[in-house]
Amino acid sequence: MEREEAGHAGLDAAYAERYEAQPGDYLALLKPRVMSLVVFTGLVGMVLAPGSLHPTLAITALLCIAIGAGASGAINMWYDADIDAVMSRTSGRPIPQGRITPGQALGFGTVLAIGSVVLMGLAINWVAAAILALTIGFYVFVYTMWLKRRTPQNIVIGGAAGAFPPMIGWAAVTGSLDVLPLLLFAIIFMWTPPHFWALALYRSDDYARAGVPMLPVVAGDRETRRQILIYSLLLVPLSLAPWALGLAGPLYGGMAAVLGAGFLLLAWRIWRSRDERPAKHMFAYSILYLFLLFALLLAERGLGWGA
């Protein structure tokens, strides 16, 4: 911790008066691509929940989810400024590029985090606000500050942070939780390791240079490929659970099976190949896979199918 704080202080001094931050720099701190998937899964949880919110309140709830996700990203960039600077994938971020100081990022993220939780509580309900606060806290303190630099299981445990949004959306409408949002949480939770380990396979040199103990760095490529296959074999049956339990309709069930077959095929190719191309394909496909699963649930709700 002392090393990171010293590094942040040095970066603040080096960046002072060098550059006046622009709105686009603050937007980049929010990790908008990650935020978009978070907001979408939160929207699905909201739409699937029994009952409804006034459109203004629904938009407010989604805004709180978006702001909370962005706040987590900004605080993550503050804490990880030192390793972002040495990784090619992240070296173009605002702090390593000197466009924003670490202190600015921390202040920005902290204000947004507190604001999003308070607004969710006052405007929507405190159950949704509590889950949002848990999400932010888990990503910042458990994943970013505790797990990421200490264990190759960082993605497995830390992945819970990205799995909470459907629960937040559901709770925003109902003030409670049920089986379906918990299943959606479980699907995202199980999806996260193969998704990120596929990226880590072809970015392992980057992580090694930054000293981040991702699974390929610590256990090697072969073990990572094996773990991707194992988690994929667990994910696909789990993705069918909403249909099997009568919480989703035949459109979801059939397409989830087809999409799952594609996921398993790519996982098998990763296991059998020593080339990085299957890992790149898996990373890209996994994003589409999750998006389509949740889009199918939305489509069925629009058609009046499912629970």
UniProtKB/TrEMBL annotation:
Membrane protein topology class: Multi-pass membrane protein
Pathway: Porphyrin-containing compound metabolism; heme O biosynthesis; heme O from protoheme: step 1/1
Reaction it catalyzes: heme b + (2E,6E)-farnesyl diphosphate + H2O = Fe(II)-heme o + diphosphate
Pfam families: UbiA
Stretches that traverse the bilayer: 34-51, 57-79, 100-120, 126-147, 154-173, 179-202, 228-245, 251-270, 282-299
GO MF entry, a single one: protoheme IX farnesyltransferase activity
Superkingdom, natural source: Bacteria
Subcellular location: Cell membrane
InterPro entries with a match to the protein in the record: Protohaem_IX_farnesylTrfase, UbiA_prenyltransferase, UbiA_prenylTrfase_CS, UbiA_sf
Assigned EC number: 2.5.1.141
Entry keyword set: Cell membrane, Heme biosynthesis, Membrane, Transferase, Transmembrane, Transmembrane helix
NCBIfam families reported in the protein's UniProt record: cyoE_ctaB, PRK04375.1-2
Task of the protein: Converts heme B (protoheme IX) to heme O by substitution of the vinyl group on carbon 2 of heme B porphyrin ring with a hydroxyethyl farnesyl side group.
Entry similarity comment: Belongs to the UbiA prenyltransferase family. Protoheme IX farnesyltransferase subfamily.
Miscellaneous comment text of the record: Carbon 2 of the heme B porphyrin ring is defined according to the Fischer nomenclature.
Protein name: Protoheme IX farnesyltransferase
Species annotation: Ferrovibrio xuzhouensis
The gene coding this protein: ctaB
